[in-house]
Amino acid sequence: MQQLVINSYDEFAAYLGKELGVSDWLPVDQERINKFADATLDPQWIHVDVERAKRESPYKSTIAHGYLTLSLLPYLWNQIIKVNNLEMMVNYGMDQMKFGQAVVTGSRIRLVAKLKDITNLRGICRAAIDFKIEIEGQRKPALQGIATFLYYFK
Q: What residue stretches are annotated with the MaoC-like domain (predicted)?
């Protein structure tokens, strides 16, 4: 995976409608799921009770929280793109987000990103990114939607 380097609004705008990149695969193991459950106070058995999940879950395994999958977006995004000359970057919104299928513990996920829209708002770059978080070996993505970021260039 080669990280895309952007230095200005104009450089970013040149990718409108194009794929920006694909992240590396990231394993989603039980330890990561347990830590997320602890951090979010969401210890639902489908996520943390391995033995019960083997017996009662339709997946025959624990699964990642949907919001855990979503929370990995910034980490995966930073593998795809590096934006220089910034004062700051701010999450602006999420649109048309859909959880397509569960991430079974032990799966690997990755991010595929495309620049859907870009606007210069008096020096602030608003970038809307079509994203898909794929599960290795699966046709249907775990999560897809549009993430919008504000980039404050120097």
A: 12-123
With tokens 């260039």, the residue in question is 153
Q: What is the pLDDT of residues 113-148, one digit of tens each?
A: 999 999 999 889 999 999 999 999 999 999 999 999
Domain 4-153 coded CATH 3.10.129.10: yes
Buried b (16+ CB within 10 A) or exposed e, 109-125: bbbbbbbbebeeeeeeb
Retrieve residue 59's tokens.
């997946």
Whether pTM > 0.85 for this model: the answer is yes
Decide: helix, strand or coil at residue 141. coil
Domain ranges of the chain: 4-153
